[in-house]
């Protein structure tokens, strides 16, 4: 079985018996983001040897455990599968093994009401130590007690204390619950109010509040107690009123949550809008614990949406002394939930670590992105800028050189990185000549790179000019446009748009013969005989903003 544990596959002599398993395992391994493939693999392993029991073969047990471990490492928020795994371990290995799975589950999805309720119920059924069980319930209460739909958990906790006939414990639990805005708040208050009629006064209020209520009472003991109970009841009615108000505030948002659990399917836009508004509300309310809890709830159902991870990290970073919490948010987003195909949150994590003085960690984060997305332009630019900030211009250029020379970058990425290299020389070093040399010496390599040519044209068009130098600048710009039209391999629509920008330049900055050149280009570029694209005449009033907007558009396409 060593071979299986290391590779995830059964050994050759077992393949005939595990043929269906092998097929399903291969499908899930080849596409680890295919949720349906994983579900099929789980179903297949559960059926090995007619269903796993204590008497199943070690191979079948190991295969099943391996599948659950890999599946839940990829999708750790599936509380139902954690329970299924725990039930499986209980059936084949007993209480301790099942408890270990539950512990892993509640560590992975700490705010799952269902999982904590199941875990606590399992503990009640398998343990005979009330203190140990109560300790677990308290852990669960701290993790899920604030949930708007936490009533199954609180009901289970109260039921446990009822079995032990510990009314003082029940009163204490209810005294906590009546302060929490939740779906069934009124039911818990009625139960608390009913029990309070017969419980000692010391159980109903903190000692300092009770002493304050006793002040100025000089009647007999029976009258004092009667009046005290009236005061205490009124005190709790005020709590009920506040809880009712807070519940009503949240009811609209809660009623719009159609999927409070994790799933790989996308949320529809109304759901996303509701989460945004709900988070806005809690942030304005200003209660740190409730806001943090809502973020954690949101990031169960919207775990794949990096916008909420960004927002959570930014909100947490605004709190004093929460650097470790912010780091944990970025790590969870980067290492588990947000797909690597959207590396922005990982780049943001690198910025955070750099800001905390952990430059080596920031560098490691960026390098890890490139291990999975070699040639990713945004990440390489972020890395080069990190090195520039920490080590100077030469350190940044060294990153660009290394990536351009690497066989892991395709020609399009290399063209973009060459343009970024030139930008550093231009914007940071202030050397226009060196930047121009980079473009001129490399343009023949990147005839297919829109990113390169767009930036080359932008570079020449943004150079400062005067009456004495305008003709020289014009010649350089014209040469870039000629190369774009005659030498580059850009798509016709890209060539057409870039030529239009040059035509705007001719009208706004050209000399006395510029109109002639403009009309020739207009005929060649927009003429219907040669061009099968709809005419797009340039506006004489087009601004540099339009140019930059189109630059960004083409850069996105290139990336």
TrEMBL record:
UniProt KW 4Fe-4S keyword: no
Highest taxon in the source lineage: Eukaryota
Xref: SUPFAM superfamilies: TPR-like
Compartments, record wording: Nucleus
Keyword terms of this UniProt record: mRNA processing, mRNA splicing, Nucleus, Repeat
The keyword Repeat appears for this protein: yes
GO molecular function, one term: pre-mRNA 5'-splice site binding
Matches recorded under InterPro entries: HAT, HAT_PRP39_C, TPR-like_helical_dom_sf
Primary location class: nucleus
GO cellular component terms listed in the entry, alphabetical order: commitment complex; U1 snRNP; U2-type prespliceosome
GO biological process, one term: mRNA 5'-splice site recognition
Record family assignment: Belongs to the PRP39 family.
Protein name as catalogued: TPR-like protein
